[in-house]
Design a protein that fits this description.
The structure is a homodimer of 204-residue chains.
Chain A: E1 7-11, H1 18-27, E2 34-35, E3 38-40, E4 54-56, H2 59-67, E5 71-77, E6 80-85, H3 86-94, E7 99-102, H4 105-114, E8 119-124, H5 127-136, H6 143-160, E9 165-168, H7 172-187, H8 190-202
Helix pairs in contact in A: 1-7, 5-6
């Protein structure tokens, strides 16, 4: 009868402030989701604990995980692998807890294919909303500058396409509030709640 | 460029506490939605102001509104008509403000047909979630009692079908928080936000 948790994926263009928003969310005492611990092949730093900060793996172990489809997503940065072990995510969701991932857009695409029912939140730079004013004040800017901005905005728009929600990171506190509101709302979605009642009524 | 407001419809079985939740929501200073003023044929009471508490109408005026399709929903109670004028709702939405309706389930069905894009929230009695435990403790209750409860729960479940969200009214404050979180989340839905950016980018 245990209702499954939600997989919450926060992503967005690099430099948008995903890490800052994630840290703020987890610093709030009323946050009830579990942070997904990543696996990595990089060496543990002083004080880092296996299973808390990261699951530390050898290159061989990590590549075995890739082959055995044990990673929800992974990527290689500066010679080290980083990835999300599917087992931890699955167990936490099965235990009825919400799992929170903060990952790059490439990784989010991989997760979407494996977990289409996840909750995908695109963290958008505040510049996207400022862009309107900037574009509107034409004449004061060179045409090339405007074109460059339009192109960047179009690319961000295309990335958005995969996501369920767009949260503007105008202020970290507001962005956190929106992310948490989205999770509360998703838990109230009729499809989720109704299923619970239906199951309950089938008992008899 | 003005983004349209959301039509928020709070409904649910009678006696579930819709009015209490609505009052609590509007007593909170950070609530940013407009309450839709109903039209009625009942006489104004001492202190009631036309256009604030109700739009007071004669029976003839009200029936003309029905004929001219000027009501989003209406019903007759104890010899008087009550209804939601579509004009006020439409103007407020067009001005980019969210409009909040608290209406009976019959009315909500009428609104759904005219405003399928509205946000329909079903306020559920806490008994629905308690029901599980109650049903499980079989043997201590007569079969008829259990059947009666199952039937009531099934009927409520069928009413839910039309709604986007289900909010359990376990505690008024929590129910309000959920309703407001749903509105925040809906404003972050990609379809809504993306449209804004797309429109913006079409300018050039």
């Amino acid at each position: 009868m245990q209702e499954k948790g939600l997989l919450i994926v926060l992503s967005g263009p690099s430099g948008v402030g995903k890490g800052t928003v994630r840290k703020e969310i987890f610093s709030q005492p009323d946050t009830a989701f579990e942070y997904s611990v990543s696996a990595t092949t990089r060496k543990p730093r002083e004080g880092e604990v296996d299973g808390v900060d990261y699951f530390f793996k050898t290159r061989e172990q990590f590549e075995e995980m890739i082959e055995n489809d044990q990673l929800l997503e992974y990527a290689e940065y500066v010679g080290n692998y980083y990835g999300t072990p599917v087992e931890y995510v699955q167990q936490t969701l099965d235990a009825g807890k919400d799992v929170f991932l903060e990952i790059e857009v490439q990784g989010a695409g991989q997760v979407r294919r494996k977990f289409p029912e996840g909750l995908f939140i695109f963290l958008a730079p505040p510049s996207l909303s400022e862009l309107e004013n900037r574009i509107v004040t034409r004449g004061t800017e060179t045409e090339d500058l405007i074109k460059g901005r339009m192109k960047a905005a179009r690319e961000e728009l295309e990335m958005m396409e995969l996501y369920d929600y767009v949260v503007e990171n105008d202020k970290v506190e507001l962005a956190c509030e929106r992310v948490k509101a989205i999770v509360v709302a998703e838990h109230c979605r009729r499809e989720r709640v109704q299923y619970r009642y239906k199951k309950m009524l089938e008992v008899d």
